[in-house]
Amino acid sequence: MAAALGPGEAAAAAHALSLPAEAYGNDPNVELMWAMRAYQHAEVYFNLISSVDPKFLKLTKADEQIYGDFRKTFGDLKIDVLDPEELKSEPAKEKWRPFCMRFEGVVEDFNYGTLLRLDCSKGYTEENTIFATRIQFFAIEIARNREGCNNAVYNSAKEPARA
Q1: Which residues form the Polysaccharide biosynthesis domain (predicted)?
Q2: pTM metric for this prediction
């Protein structure tokens, strides 16, 4: 999608994405740019966990803090296959909000929208993807990497293609 933008359009898009949300109403062009950025992030991340053993990945400078706080706050959250209600319901939001806010100023763009896979053994498809904040993405994906949940993606990418 972004490849279709010329240099001037790409620069304008980058500038638009740096402005505060209050500068926009529900501008469909901005929503499209955000969606493109989220998709590109998802594509890069999936390629990364497909080519590098996930247990060795470091996603942020604060991985230790994120993982520790995540498991302290959400110790029983099932992360291999997420239930969207555990992220989006009102009770879940009440629990996630203070967790997320702890990373303001610690993780750059902690509250940006990001795509998150529901079932970590599968790729990004419309049925397997939800919209989450970047800190939710980091918390869940750091846990998935450390706890071996993303090994299925890495191992299947290493298998030779079958004819």
Answers
A1: 30-154
A2: 0.79
Do 146 and 50 meet the contact criterion of CB atoms below 8 Å apart? no
pLDDT digits (tens, 9 = 90+) for 9-28: 555 555 555 555 555 456 67
* DSSP symbol at 116: E
Residues 6+ apart with CB under 8 A from 111: 100, 104, 133, 134, 135
Q: Which residues contact 103 (CB under 8 A, 6 or more apart)?
A: 62, 66, 110, 135
Grouping H, G, I as helix, E, B as strand and the rest as coil, residue 7 is helix
List all residues 6 or more positions away from 60 whose beta carbon is below 8 Å from its beta carbon. 66, 107, 138, 142
CA 79 to chain centre: 13
Domain interval for residue 120: 2-158
Q: What is the CATH number of the domain that holds 145?
A: 1.10.3560.10
Assess contact for 107 and 60: CB atoms under 8 A. Answer: yes
